[in-house]
Request: fold
Amino acid sequence: MASVPALKRSDSVVDTMPEALRQSRYHMKRCFSKYVEKGRRLLKANQLMDELEQIIDDHTERSQVLEGLLGYILCTTKEAAVIPPYVAFAIRPNPGFWEFVKVNANDLSVDGITATDYLKFKETVVDENWANDENALELDFGAMDYSIPHLTLSSSIGNGVTYVSKFLASKLNGSPCSAQPLVDYLLSLNYQGEKLMLNETINTASKLQSALIVADAALASLPKDTPYQSFELRFKEWGFERGWGDTAERVKETMRSASEVLQAPDPFNTEKFLGRLPTVFNVVLFSVHGYFGQSDVLGLPDTGGQVVYVLDQVVSLEEELLLRIKQQGLNVKPQILVVTRLIPDAKGTKCNQELEPINKTKHSHILRVPFRTENGVLPQWISRFDVYPYLERYAQDASDKIIELMEGKPDLIIGNYTDGNLVASLMASKLGVTLGTIAHALEKTKYEDSDVKWKELDPKYHFSCQFTADLIAMNTADFVITSTYQEIAGSKDRAGQYESHAAFTLPGLYRVVSGTNVFDPKYNIASPGADQSVYFPHTEKHKRLTQFRQAIEELLFSKAENDEHIGYLEDKKKPIIFSMARLDIVKNLTGLTEWYGKNKRLRNLVNLVIVGAFFDPSKSKDREEAAEIQKMHTLIEKYQLRGQIRWIAAQTDRNRNSELYRTIADTRGAFVQPALYEAFGLTVIEAMNCGLPTFATNQGGPAEIIVDGVSGFHIDPNHGDESSNKIADFFQKCKEDPEYWNRISAQGLQRIYECYTWKIYANKVLNMGCVYNFWRQLNIDQKIAKQRYIQTFYNLQFRNLAKNVAARRDETPKPETKE
Ligand code: UDP
Ligand code: LCN
Reply:
């Protein structure tokens, strides 16, 4: 990548490109002639570079061009559309920032164009009539966000709640009237009709300010641990209701924050005060597609990390809610419902059970509601790509059941994945409840050109429904929870998953000129953790789950080959490199096996253990998985790996799995996550929690989880030799200095404790619930206006698309299943 001279943020490509082209005019004329000679087409960044390299074959001259401004522009170009004599470029100089320019190949003139014009260029390549249709549907969700303040720096993206607190602080500042919305909000708080925080005695900001001074003086004379009940009556007369705290000390602290906010609002106290308000008691989490259960579901189609995430999330949210409610001095039982699909044909799981208490919680349940049609209840599991026709009715049925169980509407709704997010959006808009959404992984970025090629992919994946549902959810959400920064805005070189929804086109259907804005303060990073009562360090000997010792010994080291394991480990003293995932192409377990097979040095140093799928490709329902199973067999033969590899079938018991990670750590081995792309990667943090040094893909979330060379290592899945040598270097170094292994293990744990725990997650998410609840009230008029736009889009687009899926249901081949 060119290092000089980088574009400054103030420089626009349209201003600098003409001069850059002029400097290399001779080469550029030839290069652009080559770009346009094949006629209309779409070009990716690597193709642009390859063709440039073919044109300028002299190494020195090529380096000169690439090291200049032009090289920089080309390096930051993500794609280009060619309509001779023009080449239109989509350039991304920084995360979230895009520029579009069109270059005339004949005279090298450069014009800046809008996102809309660029999309029309792309459309012209695939569907010219539609591109030229003046009445083609164009969506501009940004037009509805005219008064919402936005962030401006790439580095601020993902810290939405902090910035909303800043915006709120400045909104509440000024005259006493500015704080009136806060007083009105406090007056509106109640639990089942019983007032909380304030009663009508205090109905203005100045009355609140004075009452807080009186209360502060009264509290000063009380011992810190005096229970609220002992001064409740006096406070009630002054206008205060329950909710400020459980003890004199806590009440005093909360009141101090309130006084600070009224006196001179600052973001810290604003967030602190709002975070303490008793606004969230009942929470609904939607995770619609099955199989969703607490046991025996991992390994079933579509059921992967999302289920693990949601179940751990509930435990942590309930714990945090109970703590907050106690500290608020209230005697309320929170309720959390995880709402999923009831599948009558449950294949031995509990997915046909309507209500199921959630393990490790006191008040949380899984609620299962079936998919219904005019023909009755749908009995069998269906792929998540096929669920769209059922969702509207599902949302209605689920809402009725939730309201019945909760005896009212929830305070917060959180969606998971496209289907859950759409259902959550429908319910939240109807009931006027605060909505958070979680994508886990957005499908659009997983498939190259999934937007312009949507017609090709639609029969199999129904992306037209999926992208429409995603747009609806992103725009309805009051806040979006992501696991990493890259999920929102990518990295220097790669666009983020949400960012790729900013402007895109589905030719023939609609053009999105503003689908979402990653600078919107609704975007927040709250990374998940791993259950630390299950995934704890291998060194905590007294906690080790010794009951699994014998089974794991046999799983790893017996020579027998059976339905649970094949291959064997000849030298049991060697450290083990371990990987565990679904056997999808993207997970790249076959890639890792091949790297290992090819690298003699690595093979001498360590054994390889893989957990994934099963061994008979003919038994797989998924073509992709079947091919990967076959490939594993071929690689084992090709590289004669027997004696050095153990391949274990998919495992469903997380307790036993945790002991497996720890047993690998006992061998002073490592975990390797070699995925071609990983949205987050729960296995990475599970391994790190067990103290297992971890090598993980630099493509996606793991690149953020691990600080390379400190808390683990990054590997590049596209450069296998380099990656396998990096792993070999580590083990070589550990041989020379055994302390090195301990250091990386300890630093991995430190990273987890600082950034990736469910406690940190739950605190952040509940703060979001509290802060965005108030933020949405403040912006309610605009919210309602936007909701009308979204409803129109839903009614006129989504419903028809879902109907088409239903109509085509029995004719199309079944899609492959992977999460
Ligand atoms: N997992 C498992 N058994 C397996 C493979 C995976 O229990 O055979 C678990 C793994 O421990 C992790 C989850 O499934 O908790 C996978 O989550 P991850 O985020 O790594 O990937 P996803 O499958 O969601 O893409
Ligand atoms: C989906 C994925 O693809 C994984 O990368 C995540 O870890 C998982 O969901 C949980 O969010």
About this structure: The longest strand covers residues 86-94. The pocket of 1,5-anhydro-D-arabino-hex-1-enitol (ligand 2) is lined by residues 305-306, 309, 440-441, 483, 678-682, 819 (CB under 6 Å). The domain at 282-529+763-776 is CATH 3.40.50.2000 (Rossmann fold). The chain has four domains: 13-132, 174-264, 282-529+763-776, 541-756.
